Amino acid sequence: MWFAARPGNEHCQVPAPEARPRRRGPGVLVPEWRKVAERPQGTVRARADRRRETDGQPGGWHRTDARSGRLCPVELRAAPASRLRAGRRGGPRAAGAGQDRRESRGGEAGGPSRPRGQALCARPALALWGVDSSSGSAPLPQLAKPRRRPLGLSGMAATPQSLFPSGDDLDSSQLQMEPDEVDTLKEGEDPADRMHPFLAIYHLQPLKLHPLVFAPGVPVIAQVVGTERYTSGSKVGTCTLYSVRLTHGDFTWTTKKKFRHFQELHRDLLRHKVFMSLLPLARFAVASSPAPEGDSREIPSLPRAGPEGSSRRTASKQKYLENYLNRLLTMSFYRNYHAMTEFLEVSQLSFIPDLGCKGLEGVIRKRSGGHRVPGLTCCGRDQVCYRWSKRWLVVKDSFLLYMCLETGAISFVQLFDPGFKVQVGKRSTEARYGVRVDTSHRSLILKCSSYRQARWWAQEITELAQGPGRDFIQLHRHDSYAPPRPGTLARWFVNGAGYFAAVADAILRAQEEIFITDWWLSPEIYLKRPAHSDDWRLDIMLKKKAEEGVHVSVLLFKEVELALAINSGYSKKALMLLHPNIKPPTSCSDLPATPDLTHNQLFWLGKDYSNLITKDWVQLDRPFDDFIDRETMPRMPWRDIGVVVHGSPARDLARHFIQRWNFTKTTKTKYKIPIYPYLLPKSTSTANQLPFTLSGGQCATVQVLRSVDRWSAGTLENSILNAYLHTIRESQHFLYIENQFFISCSDGRTVLNKVGDEIVDRILKAHKQGQCFRVYVLLPLLPGFEGDISTGGGNSIQAILHFTYRTLCRGEYSILHRLKAAMGTEWRNYISVCGLRTHGELGGHPVSELIYIHSKMLIADDRTVIIGSANINDRSLLGKRDSELAVLIEDTEMEPSLMNGVEYQAGRFALSLRKHCFSVILGAAARPHLDLRDPVCDAFFQLWQDTAESNANIYEQIFRCLPSNATRSLRALREYVVVEPLATVSPPLARSELNQVQGHLVHFPLKFLEDEYLLPSLGSKEGVMPLEVWT
């Protein structure tokens, strides 16, 4: 005998067999609905009664015998899967619609008439089969009574009377859950502490697997705040939209739904519950547990859609729907079901505080293509060939993304930028009900289900971008993508010891992500020295953090092997697959062991001991093997300037990295596999919640600058160049520049940046107005390329020297040529060009070597500082070539100082950095009375010039150093190097003379090889390279 329980009735009536053809097999497959039962004769009622001790009625399932009227117990269990029919036959009419009409006409099918509003077996929720324990008819096979009842089976009760008399209700009382399934909320706990961590973005699951979307223990509260009525173009007539405001912890969002959406949700949840009750696994069953007395967990019925009457009736219906949702949202069984999350428009990315506000979400169809990068579209940007795909769209405050419904993986991330624009309509989207979202690197076209939805989505996306994300949809000062950020903690570093120690401390404290981008990365570098153990080795530190769950992403510069031999391929293999959390993954060998080291080697291990002019690096896959003789060749020291920023500027820098990473993943085929994840930017709304800070920071206004092009980030920006030009133009007292290169002064053809031109114009302005204005320029005495300088240097050295001298003093476009033409020899009162040199002992003899200036820094007026990776040349500044980063720091905290003998309020950050640099350069430790406060007065400028000239003369006398003003031609150079230096002839006398050296400052030799043409010949490999490589 077959029975069926359905939503809305406590029993089902089955017509006699003579009224309809007999059918074999089970009557229903959940979630589809079918004819459900047959019996040999008569009518049988199957009734589900709660166990009530008060009236003495037995619990469980019973049948009412048609002849005697007695209640007979029936043993029930779920029908086996082999007897459940799949597929849909006849649509929704197959099991109920046709029979409803026959019964309403007085029981044509042989069954009794039924009350209005109770459809016969409409969408039955559960197909059951069993044996009649009292009937004399042939019994079905006896089945053991299950130990656990199906979920909520006792809650199937009759539908409550509708608040609205205009039709049927969908009974939701069957969705009742047992008390142990209802979330218990802890009192006194901050809901923000229960929200999902940011690392959840790397562990997304398919939506249909019911991943944990809401924070455990944090309630979800729904409120129907209003309705909207509109007339659709179809025959349906007037429709009502319910605006539902939802709150989950600190997150609040609004969704708009029709009544039919509530109906569909109700049916989906009911099917889900019945399906779970049918599963044979015990873990899906919920043990019977009586509800606490007085605690009714039955959910109010869902009212039937119908013509709206008075406003009072509308308000009652709003309240009814609100109660319906709130009761469902207290039950985790339903709350995390994918039908519920789709209805509420939430996903695993909704409630991550670092991603910002909840935003807009939902299922859409998106069109392929639209990329503005050549080669990513079938027929260019016209998109002749495309396809539509169903995706889950997530819109946050500064970006949008879409996810694959089947896998849950993020398929694309579109960052909002100044090219942001949203359009609606077929004219713009070439699709009915289309929405077009434009940014600088892609036009994404979405397809909605109606024009109303398209307008709603376009409005919400625009409001999100123009609200919290407005910082990134407009250009800021200097045409930068990032705005100035006041109140930022910043700290400067001079040289590598302090900088890399701070990097090591930051890595140790990292909890979520580490981003590294570098032109050359040596994985085996020791960040803190002396290196007594491997604890501070970079690759080992990154591996430990990856094992802790931190995700490490690395972007390396792909070198031109003809010009650089930094072997970035080895860095990939040696570092990026130490752990799966270090991306991108490639195969790598075991970590090279650290050899036993002497005291000297504890500071400069293996190839750290280098002199790149004597010999360039080789065999970089053997980092601890020396490649020059430590006993005879002095090491070349490097000078660098670094900076650390906290808070919002750090988020801006991370956004630049993420943009470049995602762009690389999109454009490079080998990175499109899922193992290279898309990265998501954190919201600036939580940027000031700093987990830690580095000591020694000073408060200032910081703006992030960059140079990028369409090949590197999908957009063009040269804000570093703009900031340099503006800072030089607006400077009032002095400029201090340290840079690895100085190739400028535009001729409109070979060199295009105008940094040198602005310096000339500012000096000419000061000369015309009679102002005291100083420019200090520090450059490396020789370019950092391998070459024998005693024979004129290699082709690479000569090529860089050619463009450097062209900027400084040679040719009609040079700085000094233009200044001499305007003021004669008075140019010496305005500008000083110098380098740095040091000396020491090696093998019992005095030795000297230049200090290679690798800094990229500008200080103006002791109030403004630019520090970054950009050299002063076209490659770094135009944006069309190398990708560079810098920060513009403007002091907001002042302290008393001097400027040209007058009291002056100098910025603490800029003043402390300049005074430290001048102290080291001028040897202030040995000159206790040296006053570094005033960099403009005549006394200090003369001291600067005298120190540089004196030191240069001493070094030339003792070591006959190169480059030198005494060697203006190759012939003079050959004669110059054959003379033995004093350091070799008389070391004691040389040591005595070296005691007169003060600091490291020396004049830059402006006349070195001035009689020679220094560009490489066409017969060399350097000569056939484009000039853009050197400029």
From TrEMBL:
Alphabetical list of Gene3D superfamilies matching this protein: Endonuclease Chain A, Phox-like domain, Pleckstrin-homology domain (PH domain)/Phosphotyrosine-binding domain (PTB)
- List the PROSITE patterns: PLD, PX
Q: Which UniProt keywords apply?
A: Hydrolase, Lipid degradation, Lipid metabolism, Lipoprotein, Repeat
Q: SUPFAM superfamilies in the record, alphabetically?
A: PH domain-like, Phospholipase D/nuclease, PX domain
Alphabetical list of InterPro entries matching this protein: PH-like_dom_sf, PLD-like_dom, PLipase_D/transphosphatidylase, PLipase_D_euk, PLipase_D_fam, PX_dom, PX_dom_sf
**Is Lipid metabolism one of the keywords UniProt gives this record?**
yes
Q: Which GO terms describe its biological process?
A: intracellular signal transduction; phosphatidic acid biosynthetic process; phospholipid catabolic process; regulation of vesicle-mediated transport
Q: Tell me yes or no: is Repeat among this UniProt entry's keywords.
A: yes
Q: List every stretch annotated Disordered.
A: 1-118, 133-173, 289-315
User: EC number(s) of the enzyme?
Assistant: 3.1.4.4
Q: What topology does it adopt in the membrane? A: Lipid-anchor
In this protein, which residues make up the domain named PLD phosphodiesterase?
849-876
Give the reactions, separated by semicolons, that this protein catalyses: a 1,2-diacyl-sn-glycero-3-phosphocholine + H2O = a 1,2-diacyl-sn-glycero-3-phosphate + choline + H(+)
Gene Ontology CC entries for this record: endomembrane system
Bias-annotated ranges (Basic and acidic residues)? 46-55
For this protein, what is any one GO molecular function term? phospholipase D activity
- Domain PX positions: 220-350
Subcellular location per UniProt equals: Endomembrane system
Enzyme class at the top of the EC tree:
hydrolase
The main location is membrane
Name the family the entry cites: Belongs to the phospholipase D family.
According to UniProt, the name of this protein is Phospholipase
